[in-house]
Amino acid sequence: MSQAHETGTAQLTLLRGADLVASPWKNGGGVTREIAVAYVPKAVPNGVSGAALDAFAWRVSVADVAQAGPFSRFEGVARTLVLLEGAGMVLDEMAADGGAPSGGAPSGGALVRTHTLTRALDVARFDGEAPIDARLVDGPTRDFNLMVRRDAARASFEVWRDNVARRIEADTVLLYCAQGAVNVGVNGGEPTRLAAGDTLRIDTTAAADSGRAVRIETQGEGALLAIALDIVNAHAD
C-alpha cells in the first residue's frame, strides 16, 4: 500500500516494490509491474488492460523478461531501459523501414545499432517506434523501463550512487531504489528509507511561476534511478 504526505511544496508518495501488481505479457514472454503513469491531458483511460497504453504521457515500470523476442512498438515514445538483475540482454535495433505491426517481429531492415546490457545499471536509450529484437545472455532478466511520449512530456534520467544533494524543478520526480537501501530527505523533512524495488514519488504542489523546486538529499550505499518529469501540454485545449 502506498503512503503519502506533504513536505513544503511537495507531496511524497512511497510506493513499495512488494505492492506492485504483475501483469503477464500477451505473448507469455514476461510480466510488467507498473510503478507510475501520467496520462495525456484530457485523455480518459477506459481501464481495460492494454487499451489505455496509447494515452500515457509517461510511464515507468519494471519488467521480468523470460524469453527472447521482439519488443512492442510505441510510436512517438522515447524509451530508456536499465538492467536491474540477471546476466543481461542484447537489443538489436533495426532500421524502421518496414511495416511490422505493434508487437510483431522486426521488419527485416538493416541493423542500426546493438545495445548491450550485461552489467547491473547498464542503460539503453532508443525510440519506441524502432524495431527491437531482444536476445537474453543467460536466462531471465529484470529491467527498469521509462517511456515518455515526446509531444506530451519531457524527462531527464540519472543514476545516483552514494550520497547526493540535488535541487530539482519538475512536475514529478521519481526515485527508484535499484540497489541496496537509501534514505531520502526532501525539503529538509524526515528522511524516507527506500529498500531495493521501492520508489519515492515527489509531486510538486506549487504553481510553476511560484517556485516549485524541491531539495533532495540522499544517504546510503545504494543506487537510485532518478527521473524528473514534466507534462508539456498541460494547458492545451
Automatic annotation (TrEMBL):
> What are the coiled-coil residue ranges?
none
Q: Which Pfam families match?
A: HutD
**Native organism:** Paraburkholderia pallida
UniProt protein name: HutD family protein
- Spell out the InterPro entries in the cross-references: RmlC-like_jellyroll, RmlC_Cupin_sf, Uncharacterised_HutD/Ves
